[in-house]
Design goal:
It is built from 13 helices and 17 strands. By secondary structure, it is α+β, with helices and mostly antiparallel strands.
């Protein structure tokens, strides 16, 4: 777990948010033009993942409109080496200038990654990844210091490659952290994923597994879960180094579909171990780590108005549609006829349509708008309804026709008008497909529909939380 490291008498980083850790000392920053400048510094990481560096330059810098740097090296009074080697740029400096310990020339930087080298004693044996907003209960009692006990969640992740064993451990103040995160809809590190370093020292492989696991946990909890730091320990448990990474985090969202308490934590364990192989196999083709899951999670977040969240759900399905069509073994393509063949036919279609409309005395400007090649090419596109039914069959998701029809109507109104179907349905549409009683009901219907799609996409068919009725989630035994 991260702890405060060498805090100065007056912490300046707290002006940017709650800090996970802080370091201070003397360092040298190298600008993009190669010039080096000495400074006193404060560096650290906030609970939302941001990594910051504050510099007090001695002597003061020349006048720069904006400071861009590509390297920083520093040392704390306790001998910790602080380094950053990825390009970083200046951001707004927020704190008041400290009285009595300032040159008057301060700058603040957002840093992609800072490495803190705390010791060189021994080889790295284990690594701990701090992850945000993961709510869980462990399945195995584990002995802690002073004969205390806490519960951990052990995972055995199987693929075609050798299996990976991981352990999820709650932080010491896990209960208070999660109470605060749930109440304030905030971001904070709640636990750590612990992994042994492979014999070949391939930490990149372990990091990839943890990246995959974070996406799986995010789907399970319905909220973005992300690792933001990685600590390395030797065989005796001594901290050797820590990587503080500025990674994308999101505020807590309560729309979980695998409940942390269900089955005393066993449902979470079963879900993770069941879907992990499917996630790895489908990650590339479905772009699961390249926007497909993130768009779905963002649509469930509570920061926007309900209409905007509904539109985001529709967009999430559109993204899924695009990757589904591009699959090598896709049971359908985006066009009815082969695209090039239809392009050859389109001029003839335009001509025939124009001649027919002339006989109906349609104005020339209207005919021109209707009978152009771009407009006619749209006739060759598959309908959204066709795609949705094919997708559900492909992932073996059984949804009744009424729900499919309602989803299509909701999607069409949101995509084309930015409003819910229940607020826009005409009398004729209401006769064909009865809308839900409110916007909230419609939004939660869409959430439940996409929840089931993503669960099935990951090869899962067990118990889950059904959010279809607002304020009344139901634990279902089967999708």
């Amino acid at each position: 777990m991260l702890t405060d490291g060498n805090p100065p008498e007056q912490s300046l980083l707290k002006n940017y948010g709650n800090c996970l850790c802080e370091y201070h000392g003397k360092g040298v920053i190298t600008l993009e033009d190669g010039k080096k400048f000495e400074c006193l510094f404060e560096a650290g990481q906030l609970t939302n993942g941001q990594v910051l560096l504050l510099c007090d330059f001695f002597p003061p810098l020349p006048v720069y409109l904006s400071i861009s740097a590509n390297k920083f090296e520093g040392m704390t009074p306790d001998g910790f080496r602080i380094s950053a080697t990825e390009a970083f740029s200046e951001t707004n400096y927020l704190p008041d200038l400290p009285i009595g310990r300032s040159s008057g020339m301060w700058a603040a930087f957002h840093i992609p990654k800072i490495i803190v080298q705390t010791s060189e004693e021994g080889r790295s044996q284990s690594i701990h990844f701090g992850i945000t907003n993961f709510e869980f209960i462990g399945t195995e009692p584990t002995r802690g210091p002073y004969n205390s006990f806490y519960r951990t969640l052990s995972l055995d992740l199987q693929t075609n490659n050798p299996s990976t064993r991981l352990l999820i451990k709650p932080l010491d103040l896990y209960g208070k952290i999660m109470d605060r995160v749930r109440t304030l809809k905030g971001v904070d590190v709640s636990c750590e994923i612990i992994a042994e370093v492979p014999a070949d020292g391939d930490v990149a492989m372990v990091t990839e597994v943890v990246d995959d696991l974070c996406y799986i946990l995010s789907v399970a909890r319905g909220t973005k879960i992300q690792w933001i730091y990685c600590d390395s320990y030797n065989g005796t448990g001594k901290l050797l180094s820590r990587n503080l990474c500025s990674r994308i985090t999101k505020p807590y969202c309560p729309l979980k579909i695998i409940h942390p308490l269900a089955g005393e934590g066993k449902e979470t364990k079963a879900f993770i171990e069941q879907v992990y192989p499917a996630y790895v196999n489908k990650r590339k083709h479905y772009k699961l780590d390249k926007g497909t899951i993130d768009a779905y999670l963002d649509a469930k977040a509570e920061a926007d108005y309900l209409e905007m969240r509904g539109i985001k759900l529709a967009v999430a399905m559109e993204i899924l549609k695009s990757v589904f069509i591009e699959l090598p073994d896709a049971p359908m393509k985006g066009y009815i006829l082969e695209e090039e063949k239809f392009k050859e036919l389109s001029p003839h279609l335009c001509k025939v349509m124009d001649e027919f409309l002339q006989t109906e005395k349609i104005d020339r400007d209207f005919r021109k708008a209707m009978c152009n090649s771009k407009k006619v090419l749209e006739l060759n596109r598959r309908s959204f309804a066709y795609f949705l039914k094919k997708l559900c069959r492909h992932i073996d998701l059984r949804i009744n026709e009424d729900d499919v029809r309602l989803f299509i109507q909701c999607r069409n109104k949101l995509v084309h008008y930015g409003r819910f179907y229940c607020a826009m349905a005409t009398p004729e549409e209401r006769n064909e497909c009865n809308p839900l009683p409110s916007k909230s009901h419609e939004y939660h219907f869409l959430v439940n529909f996409l929840d089931r799609v993503f669960l099935k996409l990951l090869g899962y068919s067990g118990p889950y939380v059904d959010w279809r009725t607002p304020g009344n989630p139901v634990h279902r035994d089967q999708i």
